[in-house]
Amino acid sequence: CNGRLLGVNESGNLAVAGSDVAGPEVALHSRPACLPMGDVVALAPEGKTLLLLDKRLELKRQVSLNALPDAELVMADLLGNGSNFVIVLTDPSSRYPHGVLGDALEATSISVFDEMLELQSQFVLPEPFVFEQRRVTPLLSSKRGLLATRSSAQTGAGVIFLEWQDNALQLSAEAPAIGLGNRWLNLFASHGEFAYAVRTPHIGGPLQRYHLHEGTLELEAFDLGVTNHVIDSRNLDLAVLLEASNEQTLLAAPSQQRDRIRLIACATTCNVIQEWQLSAQLSSNLVRVQLAGQRYLVAADDSNKVWLWSY
């Protein structure tokens, strides 16, 4: 977070690693949002309060809300002018208790706040739908908005695009849903007008690419033998976007058995271009880092090894 490593200490407080800086108690499984000037937005326990903290993690402002208790806070420039909004999944419900992320609660709304935690907009799903995720995925191209995983017992999971129009989120496009209840997809990355997910990651589903084109969310599938989630886990980052340009996007994702990492190049189509063997099953998220000018993908496995691959 702006050059500092944040974590939750043994008392349940947000803290800066390697220092004596500690802030208030926070939701254990949430993830804060880091504002550019050093402030931090975090979720209080049980998701009942949104906290604005300064560089010393001292409270500047707080607002009441009803957030998903393990929501990941997401920042996005929805106006395209450098301003930041904080987006959080809110109003948890058990009306679709699929439980793929470890509990029976799923959000039924998305709330958008400005940097001072003033509520700007809220988008509410009608029954029987829920947002079956811990976070939204910004899509910031010719149209600006959010991608979200919408699910129900009748349809299973599908991706929708909520465009930011007239200072509000409005449903603008949707891709076909899986069509069967208790079937999920994990949306994990976006760049330009494209986004990426793994459909049914627990039962061998394909990589899916979404393209927002002329008001339509087009869908392609590529059977590459990858996954990006372990059932009941809150870790949504077993796959990662490494880099993207107008010509090509590089992704990394584990094999279905999670014993190898596959480097995937997406242009006209998506193909595995390289594969790295682990000593045991993947036990961590994937992280991209740059050290001394060299780019690396980093992961850990069940043999207690940490791996770095250059790409």
Features:
single chain; 311 residues; mainly beta; five-stranded antiparallel beta sheet; four-stranded antiparallel beta sheet; 27 strands; globular
In terms of per-residue confidence, which ranges show pLDDT below 50 for 5 or more consecutive residues?
none
Class computed from helices, strands and strand pairing: mainly beta
Number of strands: 27
Instruction: Give the count of helical stretches.
Output: 0
Distance between termini?
25 Å
Q: Radius of gyration over alpha carbons?
A: 19 Å
| Share of residues in strands | over 45%
Largest sheet geometry: 5 strands, antiparallel
Shape designation: globular
* Helix content percent band: under 10%
Report on this model:
The protein is 0% helix and 50% strand. It is mostly beta strands. The strands form 7 sheets. Strands 12, 13, 14, 15 and 16 form a 5-stranded antiparallel β-sheet that branches. A 4-stranded antiparallel β-sheet has the order 4-5-6-7, with no helix packed on it. Strands 8-9-10-11 form a 4-stranded antiparallel β-sheet, with no helix packed on it. A hairpin with a 2-residue loop joins strand 17 (185-191) and strand 18.
List the helices and strands and how they pair.
Layout lengths: L5 E3 L4 E4 L5 E4 L7 E2 L5 E4 L5 E5 L5 E6 L9 E3 L8 E9 L12 E8 L5 E6 L5 E2 L5 E4 L3 E9 L3 E10 L2 E7 L10 E7 L2 E6 L7 E7 L2 E7 L17 E5 L4 E6 L5 E7 L3 E8 L9 E5 L2 E7 L5 E5 L1
Antiparallel strand pairs: 1-2, 2-3, 4-5, 5-6, 6-7, 8-9, 9-10, 10-11, 12-14, 13-14, 14-15, 15-16, 17-18, 18-19, 19-20, 21-22, 22-23, 23-24, 25-26, 26-27
